[in-house]
Design goal:
102 residues; 5-stranded antiparallel sheet; 2 helices; 5 strands
């Protein structure tokens, strides 16, 4: 379940903008997902356990462009590079909504 190269490039840019504080995400602990809406796109990243594959996975739900078509992408921890990128983005996104004392 490898992610398309064009999506990986986009996710890397989103990660950089998130880490730079340019993007703020909402975190839903019950749904175990993070989401963001901007004028250009909206995206939700959800973490789940696929019991059939016995693997952790991330699902990306993306809407963007002029048609706002919905797209769904999935990767699991067997695809190490894709999974690590989404894990890093998921954690960075959570951190934007956390309040740390210092």
């Amino acid at each position: 379940m490898m992610l398309p190269p064009c999506l990986l490039v986009f996710l890397e840019k989103v990660l950089l903008k998130t880490e730079a504080g340019e993007l703020a995400w909402l975190y839903d602990a019950e749904g175990d997902d993070v989401s963001i809406g901007t004028p250009q796109f909206s995206m939700t990243i959800r973490h789940d356990v696929n019991r059939n594959l016995e693997a952790n996975e991330f699902m990306v739900f993306y809407r963007g462009g002029t048609d706002q078509q919905a797209h769904r992408f999935v990767t699991n921890d067997r695809e190490e590079g894709d999974y690590r990128l989404l894990q890093k983005l998921f954690n960075a996104a959570q951190a934007t909504s956390a309040v740390f004392p210092f």
